[in-house]
## 1
Amino acid sequence: MLKTVKFGGSSLADANQFRKVAAIVKEDLTRRYVVVSAPGKRNSGDDKITDLLLRCQRFAAAGSDYREALSTIRERYFSIAKELSLKADLEKEFSVIEEALKKGATLDYVASRGEYLNAILLAEFLGFAFVDAADAILFDENGALLEEETNRRLAAVLRKNPRAVIPGFYGANAKGQVVTFSRGGSDITGSLVSRACQADLYENWTDVSGLLMADPRVVENPRAIASVTYQELRELSYMGASVLHEDAIFPVRAAKIPINIRNTNAPGDAGTMILPAANSVPGHITGLAGKKGFSAIYIEKDRMNNEVGFVRKVLQTLENHGVCVEHVPSGIDTISVVVSTAELKDEVDQIFVELQETVQPDRIALFDRLAIIAVVGRGMIRSQGTASKVFGALAKENINIRMIDQGSSEINIIVGIEEKDYERAMRAIYAAFVAEE
Ligand code: ASP
């Protein structure tokens, strides 16, 4: 049995959190590889170290005074080290960082130092080896991860170090320059480490006891999800449920390694298991997620279904403008293309002109301020009544449905509604499923 454990920023925000982390790691000898984020917020008014580092770099690049931001960062690390009686030479580490700032260090390099320093401290505290991600996680010159090379290199480095702490969030390119993932990317590092060491489980420790069935800002006290498949999680996180970086799923999914989301502040809670496949209860949904900020381009044309290439031409026009298409519900003579409003930007007029020319529709219109809700559940495959429950709940609330789409995987039903109805719709759908159990 071998486990990779990743701790998020709030799990390592101060010395007390370090102690909790050490207790978790030490309690189970199979927890051999530890991936860390930079220290996060200690309370709601606090700053994340990564944000402070980014600020430092921006000030330095603009020729302004970065010293105040840097000294706040220093204090955070020095206080952790002091309270835990660690001997790491932070003085030296900070002089290297300061030198780099003076010489115009890149944003990626500076941002990565949060994880780097945290991993050095935690490695010492645990008595584990420190493995620098810059030596094992490899990017190409365009900043894209080199998956295969990374897997090989990481596996080799980990074989030499039976217990190690690895900083999350970054790696390096062939020139040795640090490259970071997008924000929250330590989850990806955890996933890569899990695959490289062929872990049996990837535990992702954070400050919530797993994934909830709905957004707690909208639905009061939603239930926790005990198990979710990778595929369901993709649907939920794409639609706004955030517990893990979107790209973190792929490496472990390929290796069929389950992920367990756990709570550092409530280690007794079982959390949520993310699995390649899981048993399903017919009629039961796994969760709900949604987002506002969509627009639908509605196109109508008689005998559209007989016109070869019609849909392609519509999509091509959007592609030419770099607009990503989210959903394409269609009828015999109608098609709607749902896109994020922000993506359409100022191009909408030009897109309409081009669509008029290329497909000559009978009618074309734009509907803004749409919200989309995804009802996700492996239990809805081949089980009757899920859709009627969703639509019944909305009808009872007098909510007008603007769009319906069911993915061919049959694990989700997508409904488009007006933004003003979003919160009410979420609560109504949640209640319709949960009340009956
Ligand atoms: N520290 C980085 C961030 O704040 C990466 C991470 O925490 O995963 O985004």
## 2
Amino acid sequence: MSDSLNSFVIAQEQLKMAVDKLHLNASVYELLKEPKRSLSVLIPVRMDDGSTRVFSGYRAQHNDALGPAKGGVRFHQDVSMDEVKALAMWMTFKCAVVGIPYGGAKGGVIVNPEELSAAELERLSRAYIQAIAPLIGPEKDIPAPDVNTNPQIMSWMMDEFSMIKQYNSFGVITGKPLIIGGSLGRTQATAQGVVFVIEDLVKKLNINLEGVSVVIQGFGNVGGYTAKILYDKKAKIIGISDVKGGIYNPRGLNPYKVQEHATETGSVVNYRGAKTITNAELLELECDILIPAALENQITDKNAHNIKARYVVEAANGPTTPEADKILEQKGILVVPDILANAGGVTVSYFEWVQNNMGYYWSVEEVNEKLGNIMSQAFHGVYDLYKSRKDVNMRVAAYMLAVKRVAEGMEVRGWISAPHQTKEATRISAR
Ligand code: GLU
């Protein structure tokens, strides 16, 4: 894979940009450019036919200066250590930008879960946790759902860890089913956070959300709930896609009906009353807001010139490459970056962990009110910095806020000396 599409190289580049803008000294970059700890595991799993398949799995803990490492586990055929390392770094900055007391981590297994039976998926989930058990724990590192993992998988994982420990450890995993310590509002939380950010954005821009045209790439947990919540708020969802393709109707789609069709047929494509289009065409549709809610590297230097949205709100992690960022900026398209826009999921994961630690559970109203406050505060922090600096876009502004907080944490803990470059350091590094 070329460096321009290697998520880890991209994440390092984004970090470097923030470190430079903040004039932080080299040790900040040195300590943040790689994960603090990472583990690569081989996971033998007994298949239903009696054979054994060996899966590769990873867990990377990027940084834990501000609290236990936190981040989801992805089950996907394209998972790699570099992808997991990038996603772990993004988690550190995501948690820092919304100001929740966590560091960043991520895990993944190379697997297409659609090829597994439920029993095989359970054995794989449990075996993965056995393999990474020395690394995780409610005070150390707390996994959660990500692409192709869900509350049932979180339940098996939590149970496996609890079996190893010989006591219930609800707080080791978030995104669990309600009955075993999940939080109300967690399933929709990433989407709800995306919508809170969009509401703040349109308010800033004096636009009414009603009738705003929206295109969403991805119809999984995040894309699906984002479509439904925005539809309930009377935004016009004109395009939706999943891995098999997209659908388009300029008069608007009802995502609840699209969901019924997708549940019946396995995809959004061929939905009645919409034109079936490709994923590439979907991204280039004329619309007010484009929401990539699938995987990394969807908007690149190849298609950025053709993006016709006015705003891009990144519900996925890493959907836009740095080259594409520059092109979108030149075209005057505002990008609300992933580490801000999709932080709602980990924020309610944090609420879930707090509730597990207390053994006292909140109403969905309480969860959403707290989530709204956190997202709004983070949005305004980033937006105000972006507006006041004039020389940075929203992504760099978000990174600046986040990296500054993590650097401050590392400094007061004594991991690095004063994070700001002294005159001497500037002189030396300029040589
Ligand atoms: N997988 C989600 C993310 O990328 C949530 C992580 C979590 O809840 O820990 O932000």
## 3
Amino acid sequence: MPKLRTLVLVAGAALLTRRALRRRVQASPLWPLPALDPPISGRPRSQALRLLVASRETVAEGVVQLRLEGRGLPRWEPGAHLDLVLPSGLVRQYSLCGDPEDTSSYTVATRLVEDGRGGSREVHEQVTEGMELVVRGPRNRFPLVEAPSYVFVAGGIGITPLLPMLRALPEHAEWRLLYAGRDRASMPFLEEVEKLGGGGRVTVVEGRPDLDALEVSEGAAVYACGPEGLMAAVAARFPDVRLERFAPRTSSEGNAEFEVELRRSGRTLTVAADSTVLAAVRRELPVTAYSCGQGFCGTCQQRVLEGEIDHRDELLTDEERGDSMLICVSRARSDRLVLDM
Ligand code: FES
């Protein structure tokens, strides 16, 4: 009996702590963090929110799902993602895979990548229920367009941005999904996806998919998300494919050296073929803001006054590309760029 009383007391204390945390988050759901969103080019990219990790659940082998609670959260459209600011300060992007109409929580899922860049390991090993995380977004660079039919290709965790699209399509919509993964146990949301597919819309492949067997009718919108190799193969077969990337394209092949003038600082720098504008700028101006270093978060965005930009990010809109660049990844097509800094 004393044992039972102790258990009840411990469970009660945990519940109270969690409720207290939730009340704290709900009291200040929107918490602007200007330092994370410097108004570069006068266009702050998104607001930062501090959310409670309300649940953490393993949804497939090596995949955890986080539900992040807040209040009055911005709605989002299928394909949108969040920036998560991890406890170490790393910023990583994760597709939203919950209900876009839910204004009290966001859901994301992440696969542990053993030899990755550290973000997924941090989520898996350090993010626990009851802790608070800062997020930014949601943002959508992978929107669901109107089309007569759809073909989706997902590789493993790449199903996450596609799942809300499948849920959002009307019942009569014509769509096919090719969902590939190592094996069924490692493929998140498989059961739901198969249920959504009903009569034969979903093809599940354990191992490498045969893209040549994929039929795409005239005018169909093709979407793909997954490992870089899969997306490259889909892009080679369907040049108009819409891709969602969460890892940078790393090859520096074909890169050339160029000059960057920092007009307001009165300095001129050389960017080597195997380096970045950001690295060169930070050697001169060490306080230059950046975060992800991969062209995803927008922190390093700078206005360009002269020169032709070689945009290599996955974030800026066409309008923004007219006069600004993300200096962590983008380069120059001309011999020289002039930045407003
Ligand atoms: Fe994140 Fe450049 S630092 S886009």
